[in-house]
Carboxypeptidase
Amino acid sequence: MDHSLLSILSLVSLAIYSCTCSSLEDQQRDRITSLPGQPVNVEFNQYSGYVTANQQAGRALFYWLVEAPTSRSPESRPLVLWLNGGPGCSSVAYGAAEEIGPFRIRPDGKTLYFNPYAWNKSGVGFSYSNTSSDLYTTGDQRTAEDAYTFLVNWFERFPQYKYRDFYIAGESYAGHYVPQLSEIVYQKNKGIKNPVINFKGFLVGNAVTDDYHDYVGTFEYWWTHGLISDSTYQTLRVTCDFESSTHPSVECFKALRLAELEQGNIDSYSIFTQPCNNTAALRHNLRGHYFLKDSTTPWMSRAYDPCTERYSKVYFNHPEVQKALHANVTGIPYPWKTCSDIVGDYWADSPLSMLPIYKELIAAGLRIWVYRFAYSRRDTLCALSPLIALGPGASYVSGDTDAVVPVTATRYSIDALKLPTIINWHPWKQCNTQKSRIPGGKEEQRALVGQHAPCRCCLWENAQAPSMPPPPSKEVIKSSSCFLFSVLNFATLLLSTLADHDRLVEQSRDRIIKLPGQPPNVSFSQFSGYITVDPLEGRALFYWLIEAPKTVKLYKPLVLWLIGGPGCSSVAYGASEEVGPFRVRPDGKTLYLNPNTWSKVANLLFLDSPAGVGFSYSNTSSDIYTVGDRRTAGDAYTFLINWLERYPQYNHRPFYIAGESYAGHYIPELSQIIVRRNNGVKNPVINFTGFLLGNPLMDDYHDNIGTYEGNDECVVMYTKRYMNRPEVQKALHANITRIPHPWVTCSSIVRRNWSDSPKSMLPIFKELIAAGIRIWVFSKKKKKRKEDGSINALQLETSISWHAWYDDHQQVGGWSQVYKGLIYVTVKGAGHEVPLTQPRLALMLFTQFLKNEPMPALQSS
């Protein structure tokens, strides 16, 4: 069935008004002729007005009915009642104006535009009571009873909807409203063969379901997504009563406050969406049952434009809009608001759990779906179709960017029902698309891409040799006694000049004139080629050097980038997908500039290691079947020594190593060799200063607790096409031995035959921290990372506690904790390849690392 052909009824919360006109007269009176600012060609009917819920107290509820388009036979479509949560929030404000309704409000607060994913293709607000005490005594029970009375009276006004298939939907605290109203409807329908309210089932999203599981899951979500520190998580678990959240203890309240500070200025309803207008004015604090003293907005839904709520406030306060909607007929003496503070603050009753109602309704054969908004309203609209088409039972669809009623809370509540599984956890795909994008939560995606190994690729250009430092100053010969010394010095200088000439020849030979398909106006030099690491076995490693642009200050540091696998190419990933200056276009032939390349602040050296990876090779075929951590580290050190002989201008230059994934082994192991070789050397050639690790594998025990998703297969495909072109390999001075197979991003042979892999890098970390080496570890923020457990195992003293860090736009960029000897940083919204998924924030992190300054805190205005 076409799910985009539903009639939607938005019910808001409390109010009064009554009328005894005939149903047709009532409908005609409530019909919306046209809304101010609405677009042209509206092909559906709309109605709005009041239905009395309690004649004696004078309570009436405001509704807005949006029918299916006239071209889609609205008379045969089901009816869906939408409820929003809070408690105390308007279904008109959120469900209709921000989420599933036919219109969106433009930022001017005056005009509307069509919502392409409105559910009708397929509110509290203006409601009122003449009894003022009603606002201070409302709660779950009265809300459900009034909603049922509203339905009965509304069907009298719109009898054409009697016996029509009827569903109830909603989100957040409607996780209480919807099951409670459903229970009343079910109980009232018992024994009636053909009930007027032909109730079929309900759909709840991001639903408040069970106090205990909601809070266990919420605190766990905050912690596992890096929003709060380990210590705050433990404090919340100890001080907060999970059985009832109505009256938190002083200690729990303090812990919640600290958690709010640690989360920083984010939109907790969509943690990867920037808050409105760079301020926390519309940011909802810690909400739900634990209301903080200055928290003005409880649980409700947010759309992708974080400022939509602001537009709604402007639009619905226009007198002409209220007149068109037949709203505010009693002239409420205060501005219309999306949520009522009074109703929310004085909520009288809130049962601890909805699970008993779930069990009753599941046993009755009602259709129940629990969903979570994932990436787009289109995805949720797509998910709605099976609700209408399938039979009774309970189903669960999940996303994971809501930190208010998070996926972990929902899953714990559903698990508590102890229902038998009919279809195991699986990915679902978008409807009406030929692409196989998975719109569900991360766990669904992981089932698809988790089997792939990470991989990468890269490119660059210029026409000059690397910048040479100025020659040392010459001493003046002051006396003839210096003559012999001068002759010897001259001879040394002559030999040195000859050696420099040889190096210049080698550098010139490795210089990349121009890469096929590269963009114009490239202002940096690049070199690539081979460095022999074992002449006897014939092992040579391929490198690619991208120097910082000539426009920046000379003598930028040198950074060696390594990628993991084991068996994956740094050229494929670090250079071509993440931190290099170029990206490969989908045609696999042309390149474009990466505006967030790390070469803006450093000279980047990408190394394909070990032999057998990328363009690196060995003339001894058995090498590929006997490689492991130890030989890889040894060969990398030999490479560095020999490479610096070819590029002596980088001798004594500040040197760093960076990388990710299994480079969490490569980098500490190589660093250990360098530190030990440099021990006792006053001015070492390799001026090693520190290393930077992204999403690293550090310790088998803690790594196995965490998981990560794979790479972007599309980007890998573009890189494979490009790197296998003969003209590209020629420009890169690569594949000189004519490897008898296509170039691949990762070598499955190397990976399968990896011979040694120590269980833990933590002993090396401890040694390097004691040696004063600068160490930063960064990771994605989407889920609690394995790094957290590994870093905690080091038992380092904390210098700066867990806190939010901010980018140059004063938006939360992630979270960080500074230890004595190590800095840990998470990047908001990043994936396994942080520089690929959050390039601007990754460049900012790298710049701070080079400056040896912690991530910036929020600047006071």
About this structure: The chain has a mean pLDDT of 75.
